[in-house]
Amino acid sequence: MDLHYEDPDVDLLYNRIWGEDIHYGIYSGEDDRIEDATQRAKAVMAEPLPLSPDSVVLEVGCGYGATARFLAERFGCRVVATNISKAQLAHAARSTAGTPQAALITFEEADYHTLPYENNLFDCWWCQEALVHSPDKAQVLAEAYRVLKHGGHAVISDQIFRPDRLDPAERAAVRARYHTDSIAGPEDYAVMIRNAGFELLEHRDWQEHATIHRRKIRDRLAELIPELSGSIAPETLRRNYDSWSAWVTLAEEKKLGFDYYLAHKR
Ligand SMILES: C[S@@+](CC[C@H](N)C(=O)[O-])C[C@H]1O[C@@H](n2cnc3c(N)ncnc32)[C@H](O)[C@@H]1O
Fold this sequence. Notes:
The protein is of the alpha/beta class. It has a single domain (4-264), classed as Vaccinia Virus protein VP39 (Rossmann fold), CATH 3.40.50.150. The protein has nine helices and seven strands. The chain has a seven-stranded mixed sheet, sandwiched between helices. α5 (137-147) links the parallel β4 (122-128) and β5 (148-161). α5 (137-147) crosses α7 (186-195) and α8 packs antiparallel against α9.
């Protein structure tokens, strides 16, 4: 298990820099605010989904619960929002308590490789910027297929490296951060989605948004480092600033992208 998000300093850092949405945004231009772009990303991803108050969505890797709240608000659907990180689940529950969507959402601890749910249960399986963490993405997708009803949809967006363009030092940096030997590219994702049994309805390459988003995250951290130094260990700030700066360079060189997939279980 990647314990990155369990570190209280990392938790505080992510929440201060990324806010409640630990995912990329869709930008209409460089001047967009991160918060508006991340809201737009959720809306664009949700657009084709036939969800209603009768639907139940399983979200895996739910972060601070912002997408669960968005889906419940937009569709009136129920959302089972799951995560392996206890720290994030506790934060998500706090952020959701007292909101109009609270009654529609349950937060549950679950590893997306081995979901504690029966077959053919959910109308939608949603995974936003979380598959990147898996050392066995084919297994995660097999689980998605298993728990979805026939006619259900899988929605994925992810930060995806372009392994064929990475030099050895860049490969080593990605492997070190994500604790994995295999770095899957966008076509690998498409193949794994189909191999799990899905019909792949759509794949969009959102590279340009990855570049803008990565710059904005790095720049926000640079601005806030003096303020955060009082509450976050300097080593945590330095390590994250270094890796987030490296990801900017990779995105600018089109070695790191942002992709969206919509798939269907017939
Ligand atoms: C970059 S964050 C994205 C969070 C959220 N989807 C969002 O967009 O705000 C990655 C998420 O994946 C979760 N994650 C990592 N490994 C996981 C696993 N094995 N099972 C379930 N969730 C996992 C992390 O705890 C974290 O919540």
